[in-house]
Amino acid sequence: MSHYQKLVEHSLKISRFEHLGSICGWDQTAVMPSGGNEARSEAMAELSVHLHQLGNAPQLAEWFDKAESESLSDNEQASLREMKLKWQQSTALPEALVQAQSLAGSKCEHAWRTQRGENDWEGFSKNFAEVVALSQEEAQIRANISGLTPYDAMLDLYEPGTTTAKLDVVFNDVKTWLPTLIQNIQEKQSTESIYLPDGHYPTEQQRQLSVDVMKFLNFDFNHGRLDVSMHPFCGGVPTDVRITTRYDENDFVQSLMGTVHETGHARYEQGLPKEFAGLAVGQARSMGIHESQSLFFEMQLGRSAKFISQLSPLVQKNFVNADQKIFKTDNLQKIYTRVNPDFIRVDADEATYPAHVILRYEIERDLMNGKIGYKDIPELWDAKMQQYLGLTTKGNYKNGCMQDIHWTDGSFGYFPSYTLGAMYAAQFMAAIKQTVDVEKATLSGDLSLIFTWLSDNIWSKASLFSTDDLVKQATGDVLNASFFKAHLEKRYLG
Amino acid sequence: MSHYQKLVEHSLKISRFEHLGSICGWDQTAVMPSGGNEARSEAMAELSVHLHQLGNAPQLAEWFDKAESESLSDNEQASLREMKLKWQQSTALPEALVQAQSLAGSKCEHAWRTQRGENDWEGFSKNFAEVVALSQEEAQIRANISGLTPYDAMLDLYEPGTTTAKLDVVFNDVKTWLPTLIQNIQEKQSTESIYLPDGHYPTEQQRQLSVDVMKFLNFDFNHGRLDVSMHPFCGGVPTDVRITTRYDENDFVQSLMGTVHETGHARYEQGLPKEFAGLAVGQARSMGIHESQSLFFEMQLGRSAKFISQLSPLVQKNFVNADQKIFKTDNLQKIYTRVNPDFIRVDADEATYPAHVILRYEIERDLMNGKIGYKDIPELWDAKMQQYLGLTTKGNYKNGCMQDIHWTDGSFGYFPSYTLGAMYAAQFMAAIKQTVDVEKATLSGDLSLIFTWLSDNIWSKASLFSTDDLVKQATGDVLNASFFKAHLEKRYLG
Fold this sequence. Notes:
Metal-dependent carboxypeptidase (chains A, B); carboxypeptidase (chains A, B); 2 domains; hydrolase (chains A, B); mainly alpha; homodimer; Neurolysin, domain 3
């Protein structure tokens, strides 16, 4: 057996254990009774140890070495490249640091769950200081290995190939036009009349509506499920994708569009190439490309006027006893395109969302590169919120720098993926429109031409190419944020 | 660390992987979409290999050796004994035999799923011959190690300590009175008038009824769930017990009592001692004792007149739109104590069930001990069915010797557990009645005195004692089938 083949076998073995972890993780979040948590957490921790051992098996260094001089096809070379990147990233850190991070992250996140409600920055920052210090250590180690800056080395975990140099250009440009755009949209919308949900929308009917929409979006129920969890997510494995949502019986709006969003993630997973199942090269390209699919479904497709005209009868059908004027296409469209600067990122609309991300990006970049300390965060947060969205968070930690879970366990470098995703989604839609009449397809109720484009250009390509090459092959250009800007202008001011 | 402690740590590690397997196994049966099956099966097979490696780790022989001369408490000695038994059983067979059995069993079971419907004994026996030969080989190897007869060595896997010598005495006695008892019951019941379910019983209402009954039986929903599967089972882990049922919208009867049965299994699991969690000594004593708990719930408690009088209002409450005369205590009781000799074991009533088991016991005993061959089975089956239940299965393989899944993958030695369970259940009830007024407790709606007895005497004892000692401590006697006989006579002829 060639060394490349040995690496493949080893990767498949790892992926089978990851499969068990994915399903048990879904179970833990979506269906497990709370009394099962302690034993489950122990079982999951045991699995983590095992996966760590497999990922760091001593023979791998030699296998990678030898595999690189073996005769491999293009796809095999890509597969080897991705396996090696994953291996390098997972073996980069000393075990003691990984354990210290796990402990500090758990402690900080656990305490944060109550501290946030109590607006307790003082208490939070005691734990957070440790998390930041350990993440800075991690970033420095990864920087030493990769030759990147510390923050870029962290970015590489989520967005391989993306750098601060690229992001600064893109985000600085956004900052020049976004605040004005938001003001103009608000002005335009200020005279709109809108009917907000005010009825009772039973869970079972919301669930049926979600299923109807997922079917419209060609979600493959033979390879996936819809369930309920506190925080919606997309989990499971590509042959069995588990998405979740949550239902508020006073308001169907968020849940419905949340389902559209998660269905985008799910179809990417369901559409990954079977021939590379279980291998790094067969996985989603990056967090940003993953988010581009959920945001393509939610923002490019889901909140478009034509899509909402298809949604409207489904909503009416499922809530026959509720006030029907809320469900009219025109009103639903107003609901789903309402722009309103506010404190909370996860509740933000399409137009203000990038401001939340750029703010976080700038802070975590300077934090990882050692230009600021964690104590500087609240003041910077307040200043940037004022600058980008005209809101102050002075003294308001819980709706300011303590609102997100990401930093509590040291996931620095993740935030840019959200806005990269929005930008890629707009760029993909522009490319699709060159060959597909998207509005006509949407009105016909048959979206298959759109999905075929996504499958051919994104899903089936998995991690065969770098993000830049993937996007260039699909659209003729690397990341170009002008499509996103044009999209916002057309939808909100056009 | 002592060698005993090393064994404990190793067992806990194994049990954490088994935990993942239990949950993913539940998922596979209860919620997984069928398209997920191939990848799941691969993941489960990978886990099996890993568990096999852990269970056969080379250092264990030395650890067991040294642990036996360490100073251990009584509980620790019991724990060591159970760990060692499990280890000996799992290491007894050469790997090649285990693999051959796995292949032959899968092949035979898979083909059986269609061959049974086609009544194709000819086709079935081609695969079955191999399964039998391999099981005979297994039985001989286990016999050589344990000094038992081949069949007793197989029995030991499910009912440690139980032997053919004991079973022959008990079952031969049953055969002297059971056929007459069944005739007398049928005669008595022949003049009864009975209203059978003839309405529409929606799944959601049946589910609510199941939950109501589980609450009445003190099922701990903080440590378990009720779901749906084709074949009801009790799975999961003690801190998170997953039971399933299935709903027939034309008939609530089977599902309801099936839930009572699985709740008995579940409460045993939920009641196992926390201090021995993850260790062999902390597991259920045997298949027979497990079945004694489900049958205690279903037969001793569930089908008693007083319990049914409590069930009746719950049924009425959940099916307000259906014909109420069916739900009257008197009628429900007739439904749940109807005796009718028939071909199929899983559908058999309480009185005829032992005949099905004894028939299988006698055949598998002689088969494993080499006294008969697999070709003799159809004729023996027919003769014994005529003798015990007055029915012929000549040429009727699908409702005869091809009806059960057990033998298709070589699970010889399991069948006696069902009737041992029924006998233990009757013996436990007789013992409980010496200190608890069971009828009064049932009528009061508070069954806690009964459950306290079961918890104190059975659940909390796990595998600390041999089955004989457990039963003797609980009831003052080892297995005594006269309680079962007396129970049947009282319920059906009293």
